[in-house]
Amino acid sequence: MASPAAAGSRPGPTAGPPVLPPGRGALLRGVARTLLTTAGLLVVYALLPLDRPFTVGTVLALGAGVLAVGVLVVVQVRAILRSRHPGLRAVEGIALSLPLFLLLFATAFVQLSGSDPRAFSEPLDRVDGVYFVVTVFATVGFGDISAVSPVARVLTTLLMVGDLVLIGLVLKLFLGAVDHRRAARAGSPAPGRDG
């Protein structure tokens, strides 16, 4: 079989050696980065001054945070496309994007509850805020905490829609980037995903 150079074709800019499963060192570094990132986000959440009143500024900060998550997703997809271990990089991207998104809403819910203790079926502290967003994300909805006020219901609805986007679109983007990178490294066209 003739080499690509002998056949007159040149490999594309993303071609290279085949993607191999991550070695032990790469896997340990990926797990460490994932754990440290999640722990760091939780520490920041624990230290944020959430005793401030819920205002239009809170809503704007939440919107800016959600936009930042969108930018982060784009950056993560680009990193996956360049990574030697795209599957591992995708897991790291999800482990950063998902907790950040959920903690943004937990922060807003805790501030809203502090300003209006009747916004939810019970006042929320930081742990309750995380618990509530995780039960909404997981679609468990135990019913022990529920949004009562119109503002709480609107924010909870936005969280649900955002969860669907995160689960559907973002995971599809990450998996598509992994497939594309693996195919590029193997020298074959990227397989299409049913859509």
UniProtKB/TrEMBL annotation:
<feature type="transmembrane region" description="Helical">
    <location>
        <begin position="155"/>
        <end position="175"/>
    </location>
</feature>
<protein>
    <submittedName>
        <fullName>Potassium channel family protein</fullName>
    </submittedName>
</protein>
<feature type="transmembrane region" description="Helical">
    <location>
        <begin position="130"/>
        <end position="148"/>
    </location>
</feature>
<dbReference type="GO" id="GO:0034220">
    <property type="term" value="P:monoatomic ion transmembrane transport"/>
</dbReference>
<feature type="region of interest" description="Disordered">
    <location>
        <begin position="1"/>
        <end position="21"/>
    </location>
</feature>
<keyword id="KW-0472">Membrane</keyword>
<feature type="transmembrane region" description="Helical">
    <location>
        <begin position="30"/>
        <end position="48"/>
    </location>
</feature>
<dbReference type="Pfam" id="PF07885">
    <property type="entry name" value="Ion_trans_2"/>
</dbReference>
<keyword id="KW-0407">Ion channel</keyword>
<dbReference type="InterPro" id="IPR013099">
    <property type="entry name" value="K_chnl_dom"/>
</dbReference>
<keyword id="KW-0812">Transmembrane</keyword>
<feature type="transmembrane region" description="Helical">
    <location>
        <begin position="54"/>
        <end position="75"/>
    </location>
</feature>
<keyword id="KW-1133">Transmembrane helix</keyword>
<keyword id="KW-0406">Ion transport</keyword>
<keyword id="KW-0813">Transport</keyword>
<feature type="domain" description="Potassium channel">
    <location>
        <begin position="100"/>
        <end position="174"/>
    </location>
</feature>
<feature type="transmembrane region" description="Helical">
    <location>
        <begin position="87"/>
        <end position="110"/>
    </location>
</feature>
<feature type="compositionally biased region" description="Low complexity">
    <location>
        <begin position="1"/>
        <end position="13"/>
    </location>
</feature>
